[in-house]
Amino acid sequence: MNSLIFLGGEKPSPELSRLAARRSGRIIAADKGYHAAVDTGVQPDVVTGDFDSIGTVPESPGLQVMPAPEQDATDFEKALRQLPADTQSIEILGGTGLRSDHFLTNLLIAAGLPPHLKVVFHDDTQSIFRITSASPFSISLPRDTVVSLIPFSTCSRVKTTGLHWDLKDATMGPGEQLGQSNRVETEKVRIQIGDGRLYAVINHPHGLEGIDPTD
């Protein structure tokens, strides 16, 4: 199952929200992420959080309300508790922008999720895919699309195909090789790593229609 999470960062466009919702079996909103969903025409299945940002607890037919008043977990962590056991991929909207501390914390939390899960953050200008040894990356992209590889740990045996500057068994990480502003050379791009946590940042000025993490 593909699950969709709405967080309270940069609000997605209605087009982005509806596209992600159409391919999701469960839609989870965290606190004011609920407004980001309904304001763009998407009805969540679940809303969770301490509701300090949203003000009042939402009420809607069929909406499951899961209060989580504790302050030792972020809204993203609270939303992750509501994932169905059969979730194989997670799309996150509202996880980027506005506050860099929230954005970086969201990336750190996602880096620690089980390695088999496909995880991607979307906003209206970019998609950020998590890559692990158990979840390699493969996608068709237009030529010259900008792709940056951001290691969130030391990443070993990084291999890419389809990029202008391809890597073969590279080591990436702090003090090692980085991968900012590469670009697509052939339509099919593949990225795999032997160990670590790597993010592929895909700029998509022409829309998200071809970017589907459930493929």
List keywords for this structure.
215 residues; alpha/beta; four-stranded antiparallel β-sheet; 33% strand
C-alpha termini separation: 12 Å
- C-alpha Rg (nearest Å): 17 Å
Label the overall shape: elongated
**Biggest sheet: strands, sense, closure?**
10 strands, mixed
Describe this structure in words.
- With 215 residues, the protein is α/β, with parallel strands linked by helices.
- The chain has four helices and 14 strands.
- It has helices at residues 14-22, 33-38, 75-80, 100-111, and strands spanning 2-6, 26-30, 46-49, 64-67, 89-93, 118-122, 126-131, 137-140, 146-151, 155-161, 170-172, 179-183, 188-192, 198-203.
- A ten-stranded mixed sheet has the order 4-3-2-1-5-6-7-14-9-12.
- Strand 2, helix 2 (33-38) and strand 3 form a beta-alpha-beta unit.
- The chain is elongated.
- The termini are close together.
- The mean pLDDT is 92.
Write the layout of secondary structure elements.
Blueprint (H helix, E strand, L loop, with lengths): L1 E5 L7 H9 L3 E5 L2 H6 L7 E4 L14 E4 L7 H6 L8 E5 L6 H12 L6 E5 L3 E6 L5 E4 L5 E6 L3 E7 L8 E3 L6 E5 L4 E5 L5 E6 L12
Parallel strand pairs: 1-2, 1-5, 2-3, 3-4, 5-6
Antiparallel strand pairs: 6-7, 7-14, 8-13, 9-12, 9-14, 10-11, 10-13
